[in-house]
Amino acid sequence: MNHTHPVVIIIGTRPEGIKMAPVYHALKHAGIPVMICSTMQHDQLLTDVLKLFNITPDYELDIMRHGQDLFYITQSILQKTKEILLHIQPALVLVQGDTTSAMAAALASFYLNIPVGHIEAGLRTDDIQSPFPEEMNRRVISVIATHHFAPTQAALDNLIAHGVKREHVFCTGNTVVDALRIIKEEITHGILEIRSDIYAQVQRCKQAEQKIVLLTMHRRESFNGGITTTLQTIKKLLLSNPDLFCFYPYHPNPQVMHAINTVGLADIDNLMMCEPLMYKDMVFLLDNAHVVLTDSGGIQEEAVSLGKQVLVLREKTERMEGVATGLAHIVGTSPAMIETSLAHALSHSHTVSDSAQQTYGNGYAAEKIVALLKPLLTQTHTQDITSHKQTDLTGAVGKNKNNEDLIIPSTVLKESSNKKDKSMKTVCVIGLGYIGLPTAIVIAEHGLHVIGVDINEEKTKLINAGDPVIYEPEIYEKLHIVLGNKTFHATTVIPESDYFIIAVPTPITEEKTADLSFVYAAVKSIALVLKEGDTVIVESTIPVGTTKQIAHMLQEKTQLHAGKDFYLAHSPERVLPGKIFYEIINNDRIIGGINPESLEKTKALYKRFVQGELYLTDTDSAEMVKLIENSSRDVEIAFAHQVASMASAQGLNPYHVIELANKHPRVQILQPTCGVGGHCLAVDPWFLVETFPEQTTLLRTAREVNDAKRDEVVDNILSCVDTWQQQHGTPCTVALLGLSYKPNIDDLRESPAVYIAQQLLAVKEIATIVCEPHVKNKALPEELRDYSVSITHAVEQADIIVFLVAHTRFKAIDKKSLIHKTVIDACGILYTSQLQQPKQSFIPAQNIMDTFILPENEDISLVHHASSLLNKDEK
Fold first, then answer.
1. Active site residue: 37, 246, 674, 680, which one?
2. Among residues 52, 567, 765, 807, which is most buried (max CB within 10 A)?
3. In angstroms, rounded to a whole number, what is the distance separating the alpha carbons of residues 559 and 31?
4. Whole-prediction pTM
């Protein structure tokens, strides 16, 4: 074998990590050069598995994004693995199973004429819609693969029936059994320690003679109601059968979280819910479970290998071997089937033969695969794939094993001047952030040539490589399309253009005045290339009167006459993160021009892509409209905060008081939380205060009220800490749950929760930890990264738990895990309306911001705290 060409293993999800770990170590043991490329389709879940198996990826593509879909995952992996494979030039690429990572990496290898080995090949349901998209993924891989490693004889037969030549197929067993054997042995010998709360609960179940049920469910085909129906069935069974105890490590997918909250599982005594478990803890639960309910393919194999009864929560399974043993039973999401099958599985004893438990292998499949590969690799002469390099590469970005950025040089996209359509207008968008990049993409989608400019050279490289840097639904796919069409590219130098759109940030200074340095820097750069007939549009949020100052600056620097030689307007953005692409096109726009000609020029551009109404006005009006829109919301929030403070002073629950007040037909008070964040609401009112100091006393007061709310929460936490330490005589740990500025997003701009965390971390006598499931650790402020933990660890380690942001995932925290914890609810996440329960006797709410310790069996929903705004429309 040519040792300069290694075997590359592609992994992207937790199951792939589990099943490929034995293969990686077997290749290493055999002396075959091997490299791991992790797409990071799963992020922390995969990282935990690799750490368990002592594996460090050589490359991490870091593709995981909040809200990612199949289009994004496929395009991202296809592009990035292409560049990695060109860089490595492997002898063989090994993929596993049926994930999108495996399919896209196999396709990239095929395009580059690199042989592909498919581990766990040949599984079939013969229905490409079930499971979706896994069945189609495995078929695509089977067409591409050179070597097929089937886990069972049935899988081998499937491959041959689908036209794969017999000499290319090998029956090896499934490597998941290898991983199961390794981890179970380490648990048995005390090498691995099981999570304390899981271990303790299993022991309690044994003492109480409760039968253990393990539940997992996450398949897309169940998103249309199947998960909700199943969870309702499980809830009914648990409530009527106290001799059962269910462990439910739930998947953090938003659809799953919605089903959990809809059904209301958090308060069931004989149910333990938790975030996804580490593999060692899952193996421990599988080994101790009486019955397993799952829609997972891998867990079906593991459960059968442990001799467990499995109810398959799917209409079809590609693992019929388990059904043939009598251990697996297909029940789908039918309540009747689940109830009947579960009762039968629990009430009948089952004798399981050794052969049945070895249905999916004997635990040494990886060694067999490597033994088969070794002569194949020796015989195969690897082609020089450098000949397949293309001249239109857009580059790729990943991480090497030293955690250093890997940037493959990209070919700069250039248009030859002799081919350029002279009638096509060129638009230069300056500032490629949350507004600028989506705006540039939308304009490029509508037939104009767009150049995006940013002072950050690294960012422009990433964008040209297809990585948008920021998160926004659809942005990855849209960016790739406009890059592929060559209607957009990014640079650090402002070129000559017909239109210039300024979309740079306008932060606030410590003196609470607008920092216009970025805007003015953009204006100065435009002045260097501005020519007669050009139009300049400011989308950045700016104080009233700024556009006129820009006109004066450009006239002075270019000697061109504003409104005659060049045109100038202000059209403020009015979009909501998460809906930017829709709102750029469909929202009404305000356009303020310095003269009628400027209005017409600007209108002509926006008509190309805006379907909403275009309202024309002067620059001062346009500037003020944007500022008063956000200031209006800020004042409403401040009122909600003061209501909360008044209710707290009287010992009332503010959420209950506000809910009652909102029963008035003309009253709609917002909900308080821990402060106001986001770049707009926390900043824009100060621009008006700066410009109109005598006329903005209300706005100033509202800003002060909203900023003070953060310190109010800090003071309450410190008071709780002092009380706790006096009672216990030892230091305590405080867990802050949520850091983003509003629920279910990854945006930390001006976040009050970040401010609160920073203040508490400065108090050295307190052990503060933070948890933000929507933000990757490396994206957190540097001073917070070392204190970031998972939801599970936060709840387990903390003495005082503070809910700062009402993330949906926090609503699924098992309330039993909060027993004997001091809990502060600063966002209303624990509030349950008493108005929906009129038959219950009234229980007075405790004083807002008081601490409480939840005793056994107390209804946590009746105890609430804290304030500031929770408003889904806040930007």
1. 680
2. 807
3. 72
4. 0.72
